[in-house]
Every structure is written in structure tokens, then in C-alpha cells.
Amino acid sequence: MVNYDTVLIRFGELSTKGKNRKDFIGRLYSNVKYMLRNIEGLEFRKTYDRIYVRLNGADPEIVREKLQKVFGISSFSFTERVDSNMEAITGACLRIAEETDKKTFKMITRRHDKSFPLRSDDINRQCAAVILKNTDLKVDVHEPELSIRVEVQENDTYITSEKIKGAGGFPAGINGKVLLMLSGGIDSPVAAYELMKRGLRVEAVHFASPPYTSENAKQKVLDLAAMVSEYQGHLPVHLINFTDIQLAIYKTAGDPYAVTLMRRMMFRLAQAVAEKYGCLAIGTGESVGQVASQTLESIACINSVVTMPVLRPLICMDKLEIIDIAKQIGTYETSILPFEDCCTIFDPKNPVTKPTTKKSEFFEARFDWQPMLDKALEEMQTVITEYREEQEEFL
Ligand code: ATP
Ligand code: MG
Fold first, then answer.
1. pLDDT of residue 236
2. 296-344: per-residue pLDDT in tens?
3. Which of 297, 340, 363, 378 has a CB 3.0–4.6 Å from the CB of 354, allowing a cystine?
């Protein structure tokens, strides 16, 4: 029996060198350990271009599922570890060949340890000879049904016949911090996932308008944050009470411009929070044309109140594509729970689709909003959310 006792993790072609490479691997290593933290018995090791996880009897299916969620992994394999000598290596290759129902194979060897006495070609040839002699398998170097991979390291050699695709991207947290505007909708949790995939560390800000928005709605946002936090570790959510600002907007501007003004206020607050917590950009779940506030005119008018870059990872995605990702990352079912967020409760009948900065400023000049923003910031509360295993089972 093949004993797949070690996971070998590859990070693919890193274009970065030197210190960046070291940071990449260091961060990936700690993210891998964090993702697998609840699985007992695992042992971790890293080298220049690989990470190894010894299973010590842990359930490979759970490890597989978790590793597929770690950004920065290009692929990984469940391997059998043997000592770096030809007898052990050919023995393990033969075990894989004996257990397969495939008809054709190819050997693929990578010799990381250049002091190993045989070259990759010779290792391939010797292993293939043993397999040909002892099984009915035939060699097919162009389209083999089975690829047997051998990686020779200094003391250990790793042998496998499968290569599982990783999530790609950069290790979460390596590329700096973004403040994501997180609502309870479908889009912004997906935006969180996409930002993390680029290696960004996400913090979130949420605007709630109690008593018009319920405690349930707030809890839903915290639950969503906890779900996506699995990809990066803890995710702080800064909660801002938006009620007074929202009421003042409705009193002064009335229906058509309310959403525009509300969103301009949200962006101003988001920039202040981002600056306070060292985030270099704001993130949103906006997508062009999706709703009235997401026409290009609206986006331009709202964006003009901030100087920070605004990252909108979903900007050109279709709603269906976004929903697909939401389902895949497990946030969809929670996102569609029917709790009002602050936009739906004050839902205007005729939102303007082509707002202008000039008109927005006209309305904004009619009330003293800066002290209200200051107060909201002063009273801001922060909840650190964290992924919980049992959460999955509720859904
Ligand atoms: P979502 O599904 O993310 O709620 P949406 O399609 O409902 O998006 P809008 O309600 O116009 O669109 O919101 C656009 C973006 O503005 C959201 O993706 C989110 O980034 C931000 N946003 C909206 N409401 C809030 C809120 N209450 N708190 C924080 N951010 C918000
Ligand atoms: Mg929304």
C-alpha cells in the first residue's frame, strides 16, 4: 500500500526574489499553519521552495479541503516520503504503479539535491524499468494516464501521482491593508475574498442605522466577516452608527439625492477609519450598472470625496458570477437572509442615476455634517471576528 504521509506544497513561479521571496514564503508558511491549526498531529517544515506537512494519521480529506483555501499555493500533492536512495524510491514508485487501474504512465523527477548520485533522467529510467518489469503499465510520455512524480531532497524523497490545484494568488496579508466597506449583501463578502486573494489584509467598516436596522442585521454582517476571515485569520469590523447622519440627509435633501449623499458620507467616514488603522486603500463590492448608485456618474460623484485609492474587485463582474463565488466561499446563504440593511430601509423611490458633484455639494452645504461624522467616529466600536468551524454546520 502506498502510504501518503506527507503533503508537499508548491508556490509556483515566484517572480519576486530576495527579501520579497522570503516574506512570501514566511507568510504562506504561517497562513498554512493557521488554516490547519485545528487538525491534530500535523508537523510542518519549510525549505527554499516547498512546504511539507506530515500528516501523522490526520484525515487527508480535511487537509485537502483546507489547503485549497490558502492563497499563494499553486499546487499541492499527497506524497509518500521515503529515504533518498534508489531502492526506496523505486519501491514507492512501484507501489503506486501496482495500485493503479491506469494503463499508461510517465515518470517526472525533480532533483533538488544536486549531490544525489543520479541525474533526473537516470532516476526516471530506473523507476520506469522496475515498473515495466513488474506491471502491465506502458510508458506514454505525451499523454500518460498516470504521472508519477519524484522529488529528491537532501535526506528525503517525495513520491506522488497527483497534483491538486491550489487557490493561487498571494499569501493573505502580504500586500498591505485595505479597509473594506462591508454590508450584509452578496457582493461585499465576495469583494473581501477577492482582495484577500491578492494578498491584501482586510479590515471592515460597517454602517448601521439602529433602530431602523436590526440587531440581526448587524449580527449577519459579523457572521459574514467571520466566514471570510478564514482566508486571513482575524478580521476586525469597525461598526459605525449612521442613524443621525442618515436622518439628517433625508431631512435636508429628500429622495433623489439621498443615496448619493449617504454614500458620500460613508466614503468620508471610511477614509477616516482607513487612515486611523493604517489602511492604504478603501474596498467596496460595487459593480458597474448594478444599481442606481453604481452608474459611472454615481461612482465618480461619490468617489470624488476621497483621495485614497478605492479598490473595487467586482467592478466588471456579472451578478451571476458574483453569486457563484459567494456560493463557493459559503457566504451566499447568509447574505440572502432577509434583514434590512441601512440602504433598503430608507429605500428611495427615485434615486438619481446621474448625480453631479455640484448638486451634491449644494445639498451638503445645507447642514452641518462634519460634527456628525466626528461623533460617529468617536463612538465607533470594533469587533474582532474569527472563523468558527461550527458555523459551517449551521448552514
Ligand atoms: P452588497 O451586496 O455588497 O450589499 P449592493 O449590490 O447591495 O452590494 P450597494 O448597497 O449599493 O450595492 O452597496 C455598494 C457597496 O457599498 C457595497 O458592496 C459595500 O461595499 C458598500 N456598502 C453598502 N452598504 C453598506 C453598509 N451599510 N456598510 C458598509 N458598507 C456598505
Ligand atoms: Mg447592499
1. 98
2. 999 999 999 999 999 999 999 999 999 999 999 999 999 999 876 555 5
3. 297
Per-residue model confidence as pLDDT tens digits over 106-159: 999 999 888 999 999 999 999 999 999 999 999 999 999 999 999 999 889 999
Task: Looking at the CA of residue 341, tell me the nearest atom of ligand 1.
Answer: 27
Residue 214 has pLDDT above 70, yes or no: yes
Q: What is the pTM of this model?
A: 0.91
Contact 250/361 with Cβ under 8 angstroms? no
On the CB side of 169, CA atoms within 13 Å amount to 23
Q: Which amino acid is at 190?
A: V
Does residue 394 register a pLDDT over 50? no
Q: Among the residues of the chain, which ranges form H helices?
A: 18-35, 60-67, 86-99, 120-134, 187-197, 215-228, 243-253, 255-276, 296-303, 319-329, 332-335, 342-345, 357-364, 370-378, 389-394
DSSP of 170-210, one letter per residue?
--TTTT-EEEEE--SSSHHHHHHHHHHHTTPEEEEEEEE-T
Neighbours of ion ligand 2 (CB under 5 A): 183, 185
Expressed in percent and rounded to 5, the helix, strand and coil fractions of the chain are 45, 20, 40
How crowded is residue 238: how many other Cβ atoms within 10 Å of its Cβ? 22
341 Cβ inside 6 Å of ligand 1:
yes
Mutation pick for ligand 1 pocket among 178, 179, 181, 183 (CB with most ligand atoms within 8 Å): 183
In the block, residue with C-alpha cell 483621495: 307
Q: How far is the CA of 217 from the centre of ligand 1 (A)?
A: 13
Q: Which of 86-100, 324-338, 347-361 has the lowest mean pLDDT?
A: 347-361
Q: What is the 351 CA–ligand 2 centroid distance (Å)?
A: 15
Phi and psi torsions of 82, nearest 5°: -135, 165
Among the listed residues 43, 128, 41, 30, the one whose alpha carbon sits nearest the alpha carbon of residue 71: 30
Question: 211: cis peptide before it, omega within 30°?
Answer: yes
Average predicted confidence (pLDDT) for the chain: 93
- Contact predicate 132/105, CB 8 Å: no
Minimal-distance CA residue to ligand 1 atom 21: 181
Please indicate whether residue 291, judged by its CB atom, sits closer than 6 Å to ligand 1. yes
Q: Per-residue pLDDT for 385 more than 90?
A: yes
